[in-house]
Amino acid sequence: MSVDHYENFPVASVLLPAEFRDAVEAIYAFARSADDIADEGNLPAGERLQQLADFSTQLDAIAAGTPVQDRLFARLQAAIRRHDLPLQPFYQLLDAFDQDVAKNRYANFAELLDYCRRSADPIGRLLLRLYRTESCEQLAWSDAICSSLQLINHWQDIGNDWARNRIYLPQDSLARFGVSEAQIAQGTCDDKWRALLRFEVERARAMMLSGQPLGRSLPGRIGLELRLMIAGGLRILEKIEQVGFDVFRRRPTIKLHDLPLLLLRSV
After folding, report:
1. Half-sphere exposure (CA, 13 Å, Cβ side) for 97?
2. Which ranges of 64-190 does DSSP label H, i.e. alpha helix?
3. CA–CA separation, 88 and 168 (whole Å)
4. Model pTM score
5. Do the beta carbons of residue 222 and residue 131 sit within 8 Å?
6. Residue of 99, 131, 158 whose CA lies nearest to 215
7. How far apart are CA 139 and CA 66, in angstroms?
């Protein structure tokens, strides 16, 4: 399975030591494939949930030490065995993708963060297990970075998510700034919208900066990889601001010409 989607998480980049690349690719293939079940195509909700349940059954087999035949899971099983990876983060990811099928509104930021805790934070925790750097402080920094990256992805994709009848902007934030769902449907970028998204951008930025020390706590290329990821997330927030928060018409992404700036900020 090729991981060819735009991601705010890097996928086994050349900066990673070779010993970790197969495992990172296996983790991302699992996450991306399960996420696509929840998000892509036109299957009814029941069929999506059944396919995700099949993923969970494959994880059960891995947990029981039973050989699996599916290539994606055979590769994942090998990575789990080689690096002694915990299974709980994979189950948490599936739980979040189940939620994406069934839930399309979030009452408040705490509810949204609970989703991020399962949809994004497990990736960071798995990577820290690979690197054997799992202090309580490092795990907290990782969670902040991963949740921030998930929020940034949501703020990039407001229009695309609306097409799936999803709104990740907290309902209490919409009410606070006087933004209606009809306004999102119309893609109206007025002062109320800009105030709302400015608030959410600043919230995501503060969270990212709170996790920034993790990039300095990790050695060598691993630390540089993480610092590039942090710089990329912060750069996207800058780009959201630069387009006047009009993410309906211009989806901010990282381009090749951004890479020198990101590298400079990372070193």
Report:
1. 27
2. 71-83, 88-102, 109-119, 121-131, 136-156, 158-163, 171-177, 181-186
3. 25
4. 0.92
5. yes
6. 131
7. 30
Using the predicted structure, report yes or no on whether residue 153 has a pLDDT greater than 90.
Answer: yes
| Contact predicate 211/143, CB 8 Å | yes
Question: 120, 150 in Cβ contact below 8 A?
Answer: yes
Using 50, 70 and 90 to split pLDDT, how confident is the model at 117?
very high
Query: Is the CB of residue 232 less than 8 Å from the CB of residue 254?
Result: yes
Q: What is the DSSP letter of 5?
A: S
The amino acid that residue 245 corresponds to is: F
Q: Output the six-digit token pair for 193.
A: 């919208």
Name the burial class of residue 196, with classes exposed (0-12), middle (13-18) and buried (19+) by CB atoms within 10 angstroms of its CB. Answer: buried
The Cα–Cα gap between 224 and 229 comes to 9
Task: Return the pLDDT at 42.
Answer: 87
Burial class (CB in 10 A: 0-12, 13-18, 19+), 24: buried
Place 22 in a pLDDT band, splitting at 50, 70 and 90: very high
The answer to whether 146 touches 121, Cβ cutoff 8 Å, is yes
What is the pLDDT confidence band of residue 58, given thresholds at 50, 70 and 90?
very high
Range with the poorest average pLDDT among 39-53, 139-153, 253-267 = 253-267
